[in-house]
Amino acid sequence: MNESVITYNVFHHVAWGTPISIYFWLVGASAGSFVISSFGWVFGIKRYKPLALTASLQAIILLMIVPVLLIWDLGKPVRFIYLMLPGYWHSTGPMAWGSLLIFSYPVSMIVYTYFVLKNNLFWAKAFGIVAIVLALSTHWYTGVVMELNPGRYMNHTALAPILFLTGAFISGIGLLILILWVQNMIVDVKKRIEWPLIEEMAQYMMYGIVFDCFLLFLEFMQTLYGNRSEMISHELLLGVFRFPYLWLEIILGLLIPLFILVSPLKKQKYGVILASFLVAIGVYGMRVWWVMGGQYMQTFY
Amino acid sequence: MTESRNDEESTAKKHHNYGIQTPGTKGIAGTKRYAMAIDLRKCIGCMSCVVACKSEFGTPLGVWRTWVKVADKGHYPNTQRVFMPRLCNHCDYPICVRNCPTQATFKHKDGFVLQRYNRCIGCRTCVVACPYNARHLVPAKRTDKNLPHSVVDKCTFCIHRVKRGMLPACVQACVGGARIFGDLNDPDSEVAKLVSKEPVTVLKPELGTSPSVFYIGGDWEIMDEPHSYENRTSQLKEEFNDFKRNHEGDAFGDIVEGESTMYHVSKNMKDFIASIPHKASDVIDAFKRLLFK
């Protein structure tokens, strides 16, 4: 049998790198924390009202970084405005929809937060509904951007938006728990968020982790079915992306937090905090390999 | 008879419209469909097509509109060297055109997939979407300042030459006559005859993009995608690293084989810091570039 070795080839860039991974993580964490913020004011769960302001402020701040990252990453930064001009806007490009969402989501969120501050239930609820739809859509679209690349086998799956949304939910809660923990150390005793509420959020996070594991299992079933995607997923899981994929996402970001949250450790404060921290960074690992993995494998093609 | 002619005319008219998503024109009477056949039995790997393309467009170092992949096969004394010229496939159903958010990429009615530099924002969605890696971002630094920079570029099938009745630069320069270019819808053209008579293959047919670059006598091992990343040599890796070091502003966008991104960025922090504007004068220069260029 003949063996062949590629002796000359050209190299193709991985066009989307770290800024895009950070951006996906930020949007996800923002959407996740906004979901928690809306529990009190939109869905009427009163015990969540005290943390609504912190959660929505976190969502706004995280999302403020996004345009800076994205515009800086463009080849022609000043031309970002083309994404919103009618003569340029392209309806079949997921990024064209995404740019509208990225600019409308923070606006609705700021208006919602204003009415939360004013304690106006009616308008807070109305804008909260709009903002939550936009929050979910903003993150859903990041999954769609990755999904609609048929040539990148690892990304081309209809599971992508659901995986991204689940990641958003758990990383948003994880980050929010960390921030509430810090906030509790700073503010007066009266204003502190009660620990049982944070434990309840951790419980939601645990459900999210279980669902994420299920999605990951579905993904493995598809990719490890013996065609070229099996080889690619092997290389990604155990090769270059071993650290973000296997260690950060699966072991540190899903399995260890799951173990903490189903064991007696969940009753301990630092157990919950450790699980939240691990989930937050674990989801970043997922963003890294999702953005760069599919492209990386084809840099030599 | 009259009815069928009317049908043909109406179809042709429908397909004559310009537009960013002009429907595929392969085999539609009354339309042109430029295509290229690459006869790999004649390719000698001289790279004159690559050089001709580079000199035609002044393509910067490190990026290519066309390139030739080389593989060595077998064991001594039964060895063989095979070649694989690559370029944009000018698909009938291009994914890059659909993905572009600013309509910078469009499909010409004659089958060319083209890029409008004045519309391109350099978001690189099309680079990610292209299954053939045929697109690249033009580096910010170019010797000729009048040429476009920081936008996505690709092979144009030399439309500027074809519209003047000339052949694309790579076809003109091919010493073995391995590259054949013409109108696929014209049954008398050389390319149409070759494609209809010879056994041809296209790259990634399963994606349904309907490429317009046909390969005759292709070697499966060099055409096979997983094979090309199974056999990466350390020499290639080294070249890639050299290229990275010489390429401006790529501290983020690339990763090197064998290293995770975060590890790579932290290991090359010195390069990374050197590549971002951290002195006051650099920041002022960067702003000037941003605002006035």
What is the count of β-strands of chain A? Answer: 1
The number of distinct β-strands of chain B equals 10
Q: What is the name of the CATH class of the largest domain in chain B?
A: Alpha Beta
Largest interface: A-B, 62 and 76 residues
The CATH superfamily name of chain A is Formate dehydrogenase/DMSO reductase domain
> What would CATH call the architecture of the largest domain in chain B?
2-Layer Sandwich
**Gap between N and C termini of chain A:** 23 Å
How many separate helices of chain A? 9
The helical percent of chain A reads: over 70%
Strand content of chain B: 15-25%
Order of helices and strands of chain A: EHHHHHHHHH
Largest sheet strand order of chain B: 8-1-10-9
The CATH architecture designation of chain A is Up-down Bundle
What Rg of chain A is obtained from the alpha carbons, in whole angstroms?
20 Å
- Name the assembly state: heterodimer
Q: How would you classify the helix and strand content of chain A by structural class?
A: mainly alpha
Short description:
The complex is a heterodimer of chains A (301) and B (293). With 301 residues, chain A is mostly helical.
How would you explain this protein's 3D organization?
The complex is a heterodimer of chains A (301) and B (293). Chain A has one domain: Formate dehydrogenase/DMSO reductase domain (Formate dehydrogenase/DMSO reductase fold, Up-down Bundle). The two termini of chain A are 23 Å apart. Chain A is built from 9 helices and 1 strand; from the N terminus they run βααααααααα. The relative contact order of chain A is 0.13. Chain A is an all-alpha fold. The model of chain A has no long low-confidence stretch (mean pLDDT 90). In chain A, α6 (195-223) packs parallel to α9 (269-296). By secondary structure, chain B is of the alpha+beta class. In chain B, a hairpin with a 5-residue loop joins β4 and β5. Chain B has 2 domains: 16-228, Alpha-Beta Plaits (2-Layer Sandwich); 250-292, no CATH class. In chain B, the strands form 4 sheets. In chain B, strands 8-1-10-9 form a 4-stranded mixed β-sheet, covered by helices on one side. In chain B, strands 2-3 form a two-stranded antiparallel ribbon. Chain B contains 13 helices and 10 strands. The model of chain B is unreliable at 1-19 and 246-261 (pLDDT under 50). At the A-B interface, β1, α1, α3, α7 and α8 of A face β2, β3, α3, α4 and α9 of B. β1 (4-8) of chain A pairs antiparallel with β2 (67-75) of chain B, so a sheet runs across the interface.
